[in-house]
Amino acid sequence: MYEHGVASTSIEDVQTAAGVSASQIYYYFGDKHGLVRAVINHQCENVLGVQRPLLTNLDSIEALEAWRDVIVSIHRDGRNQQGCPMGSLSSELSRSAPESRADLLAGFNQWEEALANGLRAMRERGELPARVDPERFALALLAAVQGGLVLTQARRDTVALEASLGTLIDCLRGHTDH
Fold this sequence. Notes:
Blueprint: H1 11-18, H2 22-29, H3 32-55, H4 61-76, H5 85-93, H6 98-124, H7 134-155, H8 159-176
Helix pairs in contact: 2-3, 3-6, 4-8, 5-6, 6-7, 7-8
């Protein structure tokens, strides 16, 4: 589904790729909708899992830079030419499958909340002024990742991803100099 899209992937395609019977797929997933939900959950866990060690401690400019560097390196080496699996699924499913959109939104919300938690900690320690809204900056960082990855696909380089995340982190750094 990640390589060919949800609409272009049939239960039979999954059955063949997995080397299992159709009855096994229907037993475990019920129908294609159940299979799609499992794919969404799997992809969200993969995307967030790679970042999890960093996501729990994004409470400094240095930690944000390390997180940015991991995101960029994953996409710089060409492993993910198709962009973010969550973003790709969202682009395909958000209009046509509201239940899938809700599952994807839950994954994006986890990502955003991890970013906001780190920024809140910085603000609580006085490293960021009270006027900095952690939730808004977290959403901007997440949007920078997703937009940067769309441009990474088109450009075949990570310049836009690096620029968008770097600019936001530099903006935060400027706030720490208050």
